UniProtKB/TrEMBL annotation:
InterPro entries for this protein: Ac_transferase_dom_sf, Acyl_transferase_dom, Acyl_Trfase/lysoPLipase, Omega3_polyunsat_FA_synth-like, PKS-FAS_Synthase
Organism this protein belongs to: Shewanella benthica KT99
Stretches assigned to the Malonyl-CoA:ACP transacylase (MAT) domain: 357-687
A Gene Ontology molecular function term of the record: transferase activity
Protein name: Omega-3 polyunsaturated fatty acid synthase PfaB
Residues passing through the membrane, by range: none
Amino acid sequence: MNQTLNAQQQQAPQKVAMPLRIAILVLPSTRLCCDIQSANPLEVLLPELYQSGLLSSKEGASEQIVNIEVDDFEANLKASIQAIDEGKLVQLSTPSQSLLMMSALKAAQLRIHPHAQLAAIQQGDAGVQQTMALALAQAKRDIATVSKVENLHDLDSQQKFAAVHQLITELACRTRFRDEVNQGVTLGPKQAKSHYWFTPNHQARVTAVNFSHSVNNISAGKQINASFIITQGTGFIAPKSIVDSQRLQFVLSGDTQTELLTALSSLKTELLAEPNSDSVLTVMRDNLIAFEQTNTRYAVTLQASSVDAMLLEISAMIEALPAVMAEDGQHSYKTPAGSYFTSEPLGNVTTAGLAFVYPGVGTVYADMFSELHRYFPSLYSRLEREGDLKSMLQADAIYHLDANVAPAMPLGALAIAGVGSSYLLTQLLMQEFNITPNFALGYSMGEASMWASLGVWENPHDLIRKTQTDPLFTTAISGQLSAVRQAWKLDHTDSEIVWNSFVVRSPSEPIKTLLPEFPRAYLAIIQGDTCVIAGCETQCRALLTKLKKRGIAANRVTAMHTTPAMEEHSNVIEFYTQPLRDEYPQDIKFISAASLSGDRRDKAVNEAGAIDSTMIAESIADTFCHTLDFTSLIHSAQRQGAKLFVELGADRQNSTLIDKIAKLDRSCGAEASSYPCCTVPVNAKGGDDITSLLKALGQLISHRVPLSLRPLIDGLDREIALRELNSAGLTHHNGIISGEPDANKLLKGEV
């Protein structure tokens, strides 16, 4: 089809219509007016329009907006374009959907960020492909830049408008929606129905929609076609609210048990008096605002899916709190819904025990973070401008229609996506919620994620291409395993290596005792009550047999943390020798698994203050090429002051391991059992992204970690404004029309 369109574009007339350059904004389903009485909710929902002065009550403001009800789509568009050429703004709408249109120049002058731009319209009977080719020529776009094409037949005017409205909405929220059957592949029940709309680096999203309908006249089978080229604008739809009437969160504070119980009882009374979903939003917002202004010793976070469920959570917390506050109590209480309280805050300024933990290779999974962008669009927009977000998250594999593609990713792709997921979540916590750790550490290649994510390396995105092509990841420690062949002194005549790794429930000492009998099997990782052995599959299985243990095969080829990896030690140093930023975090202690013995024992990499790129690269290489003792790494972090371990990456595998390590310490009375230890996963495979995030925030709040609740409060402000606008819609004399507003169709400029 691309070759046909390119040929048709070349055959198009030399004189092509100029691009339209019409800016489009998705509105709440309400008719704009300039009456000052409607200002309160709209000021929250349409801040840019208010700043422009178009919605003021000043004389002449109302004359700038022309309202057109959709009844003949093509004719309505023609009238809209004519009005826009005359300097007007046009609101084109149906009872349930609405668009605001103006010239792109006017939008720029008013500092309004449009959601999309209408670049071309072509009509005729020359065929769909030729009409589309003419439209692309008018828009000055090549078919290769078009990332989505819709071909729709025999729709009425309102259906056509709805289709265009939907396309603009997808552009504005950067969301790619999936059909139940895509390219012959049926989506599984656990697959995401949508995900972020990725594009090649620095390439805008361009869409085409083609309408066709048959005409009954003497020319049998004649078809009239209309093609529209719509490109993304500089704005995006405002964030979905993290908390709402189906995802409630309250935070109560106090310095004593009595104060907490009183606050819980007061909230219960308030909710019983205001049980409807509209009023609970206001109660929730006011509660969060009040909490931000407090500085108490304790905090209780409550989460539930409804008011009734919240009342049950409050009752459960009232019953559990005295036991938690007792000196010999368990120090924390958590419900499946996410409510949380601890009597031993580990992350406050005084304790300074907050540690970011970065997982290693293999934690990423299909469709991870598929909804996160709808709640944090400015974050995704910034990451997209800073680098190749699509490559950073390995989107072609992670969001593939076939859910089996992601688990089969090669080592290099897994490494890139692992760093990318950690980088994204780190930016989310630090930039959106103003959370800064006191410590940072990584599991295996999580050390690279640590340096990349926390603003130490100047250009972490440069590692994406290197990881995809460098022999270190493609052939040395994976694939053909050239480093292993060199260590084993094999030549081209020897057979291929059959390599595997196995997770075995066993202490490390019995495995170490048997290793001399199996020289091509290695103890790769020590992690609590389990270990990972790797190497020649035959020898690994023989070792397991003699150990009288069953091993779970990972079926992944990587020689990291084995003796043969030392063949690549200098190459690892070279690979990770990256320029540092002029200014990097000075208050975070970076802990490495390479600092577990000798002079470096229990010392952060930056213990002496200044760090350089070689120091970081050598630390990564030492971890990369030796057995990873994750148990000792956690113990070392604890001795240095880490207490609250927040996992920054896909899934929660490290949190599970740390919990097991702490449990093992307590059971055997180890020295480390005296150190407080709590884990907080930010993400969990199989769970809802935002629910997992809210649960993590709830724990951090109760642990008194300094953070901002502004994203939650701002979202509630928008939710409340929409409901006010909707409830007032039919009562206003100036003709605001009512309809069920979409909570996501709000205006927001990119920042």
